[in-house]
Design goal:
The complex is a heterodimer of chains A (about 250) and B (about 180).
Chain A lengths: L1 H8 L29 H19 L10 H21 L7 H18 L11 H23 L17 H40 L6 H38 L4
Helix pairs in contact in A: 2-4, 3-4, 3-7, 4-7, 5-6, 5-7, 6-7
Chain B lengths: L1 H17 L9 H132 L6 H13 L1
The chains are: A mainly alpha (about 250), B mainly alpha (about 180).
């Protein structure tokens, strides 16, 4: 196996911080087809299971005085709902389930990824790119559907001086098309970097002299990563809301 | 923080040989397929079951809280009204009690006056009778003194050897009694 070979090379120090991101089949050792059940499947399914548990089963009581799990669900509901209302206005609330799906999937995948020995789907560019480009195509098509060609007026700043308008339009178009790239790379990059750094410190823990420092550093970075897990889910969601606002109200 | 960056750098050189699993295109169809399945499941569960239910619960709670607050406000108004009614009742009861006390006082005073008047009348009658009786007794006593004096004077004269002149004795006694 490649892992053992690496370990021997480094002479006792085991540094392969990216092995945790490897996609492996859960059963057998065959090639990875699109339908193969892999660790991606497992951890995505666990994320979905957590969401179902908290939001569908936890809310089943419909209690006036909520239980703990119900309270968590209601807090997340209120958080995302008010975020959409604040950013996009009243007509954005229609897209609440889509945005809630994104937020909860990213949040639970990030948090589950912080469990030791786990796999983090959101650290993969394939996953975050589907999310980012999905949002991009969704809001672009929505804007074209709602406003027709007037949607393109978003790039033409009517209140800028006439000379600058074409230049600004070019910049605006470029920045518009860069959005999905930055949107997805931001998520995958943040999550991947944090997990890799934890792994690197874990590798140092093999040396007795610096292992206390290394373990302390892991604890500190772990705390930071919990924060990052929330913040990245929040950032992804609020940017989705901002893009949605542009689609619904292109006149700025 | 500097150690972190050097670690990351060494990690990067280390993994340059292995390659980033993120860039392994052969796993992309698998990840994308399962991502779409997962998102679809989450979306269906949220939009069909969870979000309407949570939204309903929140709306229900809001309604209950505002209804409870309204009910509390109403009860407060009722309590204030009840207190006012109580105070009013207390005041009217005081007035009533004052009236009853005054009436009772007047009644007692009237009875007392009547009793005093009748007692006065009785006392006056009794004292008048007593005065009359004293007068009679006085007159009786004077008459008795006169006759006793006459008898005594006659007996004295007889004992001294004289003859008693009835008329002279009476005149002498009468003169003595006057003096």
């Amino acid at each position: 196996m490649a892992e053992t070979a690496h370990g021997e090379e480094a002479g006792g120090l085991v540094f392969h911080p990216l092995d945790q991101f490897m996609v492996k089949p859960l059963f057998g050792d065959g090639p990875i087809e699109w339908y193969t059940i892999t660790n991606v499947t497992l951890w995505m399914a666990l994320a979905a299971a957590v969401i179902v548990l908290v939001f569908a089963i936890g809310s089943r009581g419909r209690a006036l005085v909520p239980s703990r799990i119900q309270s968590v669900g209601e807090l997340a509901y209120g958080f995302v709902h008010s975020m959409i209302e604040d950013v996009t206005g009243h007509d954005g609330v229609k897209y609440f389930p889509i945005i809630m799906t994104l937020f909860l999937f990213i949040l639970s995948a990030n948090l589950l990824g912080l469990l030791p020995m786990s796999f983090t789907p959101t650290s993969h560019i394939a996953v975050s790119a589907v999310l980012g480009f999905g949002v991009f195509f969704f809001v672009t098509l929505l804007g074209l559907y709602k406003h027709g060609l007037q949607f393109l007026g978003m790039f033409w700043m009517a209140d800028a001086p006439l000379v600058l308008r074409p230049i600004i339009a070019i910049i605006e178009v470029i920045s518009y098309f860069v959005r999905p790239v930055s949107h997805s790379i931001r998520l995958a990059g943040n999550i991947m970097a944090g997990h890799a750094v934890i792994k690197v410190f874990a590798g140092f823990a093999a040396i007795a002299a610096i292992s206390p420092v290394s373990v302390m550093a892991i604890v500190a970075i772990y705390g930071l990563e919990v924060l990052v897990a929330f913040i990245q889910a929040y950032v992804f969601t609020i940017l989705t809301c901002v893009y949605l606002k542009d689609a619904l109200h292109p006149g700025h | 923080m500097t150690t972190t960056t050097t670690d990351a750098a060494s990690a990067a050189t280390e993994t340059a040989k292995a390659g980033m699993p993120q860039l392994d295109l052969s796993t992309f169809p698998n990840q994308i397929f399962w991502l779409i399945v997962t998102l679809a499941v989450i979306y269906i569960v949220l939009s069909r079951v969870a979000l309407p239910r949570i939204g309903g619960t929140l709306a229900n709670r809001k309604g209950t809280i505002s209804a409870d607050l309204a009910a509390a406000e109403e009860l407060k108004q009722k309590a204030v009204a009840a207190e006012a009614a109580y105070n009013e009742a207390l005041a009217s009861a005081r007035v009533e009690a004052g009236k009853i006390v005054a009436a009772a006082k007047a009644d007692i005073q009237a009875d007392l006056n009547k009793a005093i008047a009748s007692a006065d009348a009785e006392i006056a009658a009794k004292s008048a009778e007593s005065v009359k009786r004293i007068e009679e007794i006085k007159l009786g006593a004077v008459a008795a003194v006169e006759s006793v004096a006459k008898d005594t004077a006659g007996a004295l004269i007889a004992a001294l050897g004289g003859t008693a002149d009835e008329k002279a004795i009476s005149a002498a006694v009468a003169a003595r009694l006057k003096g």
